[in-house]
Amino acid sequence: MPLIEIKKNKFDVILDLKYASEDNILGKKIFLEDRCFLLEEAADETS
């Protein structure tokens, strides 16, 4: 199942990736990068 990266300039979305920042329940960054992916089939439904 292919994944598509969800970017603000390509999709009309607001991204708030809590675990890619210190603004989460642990108070520290967990993910190294602030990137969001969605299954291609689901991404097609949002277009």
Tell me the distance between the termini.
18 Å
The whole-angstrom Rg is 12 Å
Given as residue ranges, the uncertain stretches (5+ residues, pLDDT < 50) are none
Q: Would you list the SSEs in sequence order as H and E?
A: EEH
Oligomeric description of these chains: single chain
Largest sheet: 2 strands, antiparallel
Helix share bin:
10-25%
Number of helices in the DSSP assignment: 1
Strand fraction equals 15-25%
Structural class: alpha+beta
- DSSP strand tally: 2
What is the strand arrangement across the widest sheet?
1-2
Q: Shape, please? A: elongated
- Give the mean pLDDT: 89
What is the total domain count? 1
SSE layout and pairing:
Layout: E1 3-6, E2 36-39, H1 40-46
Describe the structure.
The chain has 47 residues and is of the alpha+beta class. The protein has one domain (3-46). It is built from one helix and two strands, in the order E-E-H. The chain has one helix spanning 40-46; strands spanning 3-6, 36-39. The protein has a two-stranded antiparallel sheet with strand order 1-2. The longest helix is centred in the C-terminal third of the chain and has 7 residues, at 40-46. The radius of gyration is 12 Å and the shape is elongated.
